[in-house]
Amino acid sequence: MGTARLTIDLNALAENWRALDAMTEAETAAVVKADGYGLGVAPVAHALARAGARSFFVAVAEEGAALRRALGPGPVICVFSGHMAGDTELLRDFDLVPMLNSIDQMLRHAEAMPDHPFGVQLDSGMNRLGMEPAEWVALRELALRLKPELIMSHLACADEPGHPMNTRQLQSFREMTEGLDIPLSLAATGGILLGPEYHFDLCRPGIGLYGGLPFAEAQPVVFLDVPVIQVREVEPGETVGYGNTWFATRPSRIATIAAGYADGILRGTGGGLVAHSDGHRCPVVGRVSMDLITVDVTDLDQDPDHLRLLGEKQRVDDWADAAGTIGYEILTSLGARYTRDYRE
Ligand SMILES: *Cc1c(COP(=O)(O)O)cnc(C)c1O
């Protein structure tokens, strides 16, 4: 009973997929890279497939192989990193669709497996992955002759609806794909929320499925309950934790709970992180240690036997704000030590 419990609500995950799917006429895929944003790719992908997702995206071929093992034949699995050196066998054996990112990848693919399905990733301005407009001009004819399954690009600023980068990238993507009779994809979670002109034929939400911003209406998917190991009295002026960074200004009760930075609770998390006991707020005080956190429970009527660190009252993005990061990093940092409980 010593480890914290991470509960993943697969119904909420499925509901979030359906809610995003209802916002668009396009096909709604699901991005499950990085082990399903840290939540466990097999249970997450099963739940999304049951909800209706038919296409999945991962970052690299190895993740695609793990996903194929989990899902079996049928669903389309696309790989953002494309066809890298050494990937050919994995792509073939696990029936994965690489999104080709460069002339080198295009030539490698055409030589190694010309009949194997592929997509093309274009760079519409983010300068991270994909062929640039000039490369695409040079390669377009060869690529089209081999009949890509999908042409995609990715938005750099989609979580800021008013950002002029969005319309610039939309324009660039339109110019590069004008007149083509091939399915197109530009939108991730943020792009879905920007509106239908960003949706094209297929949308690729990730973070919104897992309950994160910018999908503000998302249902929470992740709940974290941490057992209390002991509770102690601390007198005014006494300090708590490494570096004496906190001291009591009143007679206090401090609970020590069984999770720390080894579990993804980033040590740099500043003030603002709270724990909850039956809905009552209890501030985290002092430094986060490797396996332990200290929480001020003075205002509770009774000493709690566990405290909640993630849930309705403190969402992934609240936690991210306190840590100076984004929900994506909180989710993908969740540690391996938790007891994981998948709820249907
Ligand atoms: C991660 C990723 C997505 C999903 O983005 P979210 O913001 O999590 O919805 C979609 N497309 C690409 C290329 C990605 O890298």
TrEMBL record:
Classification via InterPro entries: Ala_racemase, Ala_racemase/Decarboxylase_C, Ala_racemase_C, Ala_racemase_N, Ala_racemase_pyridoxalP-BS, PLP-binding_barrel
KW Isomerase (keyword) present: yes
Pfam family name, one: Ala_racemase_C
Known catalytic reactions: L-alanine = D-alanine
Domain Alanine racemase C-terminal: start-end pairs: 221-343
SMART domains for the chain: Ala_racemase_C
Annotated family: Belongs to the alanine racemase family.
Function comment: Catalyzes the interconversion of L-alanine and D-alanine. May also act on other amino acids.
Name of the protein: Alanine racemase
